[in-house]
Specification:
Blueprint lengths: L2 H14 L2 E6 L2 E6 L2 H19 L8 H11 L11 H23 L1
Antiparallel strand pairs: 1-2
Helix pairs in contact: 2-4
Length: about 110
């Protein structure tokens, strides 16, 4: 990223906060400027909702499967790093991978 673009995004973040949209040509982009904001949103909304509605006999998606396996492995020392933070990193990886795939497809 060029210095000019970086400084422009910093100014926009100061003016509009950690999440904002910008229009570049005919496209509108959502800018997420802070991992902790993304983490907080997913943790409070997505993960907590999955925990409340989890049916171990009928997992709906990756998050459900992860939470089920987390419970199965809770006493296994090889899985001590598992938890919400690790799950959030996986979700973030999926988000970035999906964004790149979408971006490449649109081009």
């Amino acid at each position: 990223m060029s210095w000019k673009l970086s400084s422009t995004l910093i100014k926009l973040r100061k003016k509009h906060g950690d999440i904002f949209t910008i229009k570049v040509g005919s496209k509108t982009w959502v800018v997420l400027t802070d991992f902790n904001v993304i983490k907080s949103a997913f943790q409070k909304n997505v993960i907590e909702e999955h925990k409340r509605n989890l049916d171990p006999k009928n997992p709906k998606d990756f998050i459900d499967k992860y939470l089920i396996e987390l419970e199965v492995q809770k006493d296994n020392p090889d899985y001590q790093y598992w938890g919400d933070d690790d799950l959030l990193l996986h979700i973030y990886d999926f988000f970035l991978a999906g964004s790149e795939t979408t971006s490449s497809t649109i081009r």
